[in-house]
């Protein structure tokens, strides 16, 4: 059967991609942030996973406020990146995966999840920045990617508990897939941040550290928060924790943390990254 070997959490702020394009990784502002990624890249190079399931949220490129699915999953052979409206350079297409993605869709529907199935979808920085971080120079096209999009922008949004349950259902689907492929799961976005309004710039580093601790040892404790509580504690975009919870839900074995980094503020964000092994 296919096996989920580990999970990775990472910020996906667009400024990261710009910093990489401009060669700013070693500048004082960015150095501590980028220092968190070489151990993860080394692990990926050693393990050579075949497939990445990436939980992300679309920021208006493909799913705007007029059409906002709660959960969506890509089943396409490839995914193009596109300008999101502010002149960010597009990058090479992402290689899709079709057999496992359709298996996941069928299993989700069989177990009472009803995702929007996307056979043609463009992906934004929520997905491409994490891939670029893990494979500098846009050297990610060897990796087959299954994008799973979670609504973190428009109310009503799925609850943390529901996102965690989605991850559990996807983890079970992967384990039932007749293949010897290795799968890694990305939880992207977060942690605490708010980009607009009176509370713009809020960062709750104590809560972020609590989330990173509990993601390892007690993820169900995080599922007891409501989205309103997450907004109050961690800012309007703090609900992106839901992508991390979906990632964690996929890992059904004993989970062990082998790497962590946290830097704040980075582009008005509490930026954390973790490497979790699914044993």
UniProtKB/TrEMBL annotation:
UniProt cross-references to Pfam families, sorted A to Z: LigB
Instruction: Cite the EC number.
Output: 1.13.11.8
Q: Which residues form the Extradiol ring-cleavage dioxygenase class III enzyme subunit B domain?
A: 8-263
Q: Which GO terms describe its molecular function?
A: ferrous iron binding; protocatechuate 4,5-dioxygenase activity
> Which InterPro entries does the protein's record reference?
Xdiol_dOase_suB
Keyword Oxidoreductase attached: yes
**What's this protein's name?**
Protocatechuate 4,5-dioxygenase beta chain
